[in-house]
Amino acid sequence: MYRVGIDVHDKLSMVHILDEHGKKHKAFTVKGRWPKVVEALKSQPGPMAVCFEASNGYGYLYDSLASVAKQVTVAHPGQLRLIFRSKRKCDRVDAEKLAKLLFLDTLPQVHVPRPFVRNWRRLITFRERLVVGRTQTMNRIRGLLRRLGIEAPKGLWTRAGMAWLAKVELPEEAAVERNLLTLELEQLRLHIKQVESQLNRIAKENGSVGLLMTIPGIGVRTAEAVVAWLDQAVRFKSNKAVGSYFGMVPCEDSSAGTQRLGHITKQGPGLVRRLIVEAAWQARRRSPTVRTYFERMTHGDPKRRKVAIVATGHYLLRCMQAMLRDSQPWREQET
Questions:
Q1: Where are the domains of the chain?
Q2: CA dist., res. 283 & res. 294, Å (int)
Q3: How far is the C-alpha of 288 from the C-alpha of 131, rounded, in Å?
Q4: CA distance linking residue 219 with residue 230, whole number of Å
Q5: N or C: which terminal CB in the chain sees fewer CB atoms within 10 Å?
Q6: 108, 81 in Cβ contact below 8 A?
Q7: Do residues 97 and 84 touch, judged by C-beta distance below 8 A?
Q8: Residue 334, φ and ψ in degrees, nearest 5
């Protein structure tokens, strides 16, 4: 079987093909977008295994190559940087190295979710961007009122508060800014409502989301994000690997028998990491099991609360993976 390494770019890609003995069979350049790459490989004889580096839109290329190749592998870009640390680096050389790593079966791979899961992730991320935009618009409105020395009433974002904002007298220039920001806020709220309606429909049809929501303090937004990024809970070799996947394990710099642990790595999806830490505060209040774990992590020191809540979030992720793997709901531990 031929091994094919592709260094893909938007309009120019390098292809390097090795034969069944690991010798160079062919190398060429494909000018054009990714469909041109797929067409070029269709003309190659014999079964082939193809690999390329993960980048934006890698899911589309993976699905397209799966129709012409016997095996498609997506390489982890972060780990490839360590392997390809070299004084000589160009697209042609990168494609050759990818093919050789594939032939040696030492290519660091990434998990490629199903198309539905990829679209689900994008919708969750899109909602997050809308929520961030809504918060920024709210802050701009408050900043406008503060610059003019106007004290906003409590409940400014309620219907009554927005009615007050529309009627408050402002200078002409400030009134234009207020009107545009108010309109922007209304549009963002409408967009978020539409996205959440679709997400709620998906969550209702997905039993795994409801399973995670049996944990006290875990809402639908956190549960759906964890399910979407875990995808298949059984794909993790161990329960501890989940924390590493979401970047909630500490950095380590150990040598000569001395262990040095630093801040968490923050690798993986930051959206899930933020949601799980926020949910950990709620779970701490509502679940005796989670509260006991949190207090144990503080070691009786109030200054360790932030460290303890991150550790609690890590604990919840491990529990979620086990719940999805075994299809079991949350159970409080007996004390």
A1: 2-104, 115-205, 209-326
A2: 10
A3: 31
A4: 17
A5: C
A6: no
A7: yes
A8: -80, 135
> What angle is formed at CA 237 by the lines to CA 260 and CA 248, rounded to 5 degrees?
40
User: What is the model's pLDDT at position 250?
Assistant: 82
Residue-level length of the chain: 335
State residue 115 phi and psi, 5-degree precision: -55, -40
Question: 3-state DSSP call for residue 258?
Answer: strand
pLDDT at position 137 is 97
pLDDT of residue 145: 95
**Residue 187: its pLDDT value, please?**
98
Task: Please give the single-letter amino acid code of residue 114.
Answer: R
Look at residue 84 in the predicted model and tell me its pLDDT: 62
Token reading at 239 = 């329960």
Distances (CA, A) of 133 to 29, 129, 139, 236, 275: 42, 6, 10, 34, 17
CB 290 within 8 A of CB 196: no
CA dist., res. 138 & res. 130, Å (int): 12
**Residues of the chain whose pLDDT is less than 70?**
81-89, 254-256, 335
User: How many beta carbons lie within 10 A of that of residue 122, not counting itself?
Assistant: 12
Structure tokens that stand for 297 in this block: 């992590």
Q: Which CATH class is domain 2-104?
A: alpha beta
CA atoms of 121 and 40, how far apart (whole Å): 31
pLDDT of residue 91: 78
Query: Alpha-carbon distance 230 to 111, whole Å?
Result: 10
What's the confidence (pLDDT) of residue 45? 79
Residue 278 CA to residue 273 CA, distance in Å, equals: 9
Distance CA 197, CA 203 (A): 10
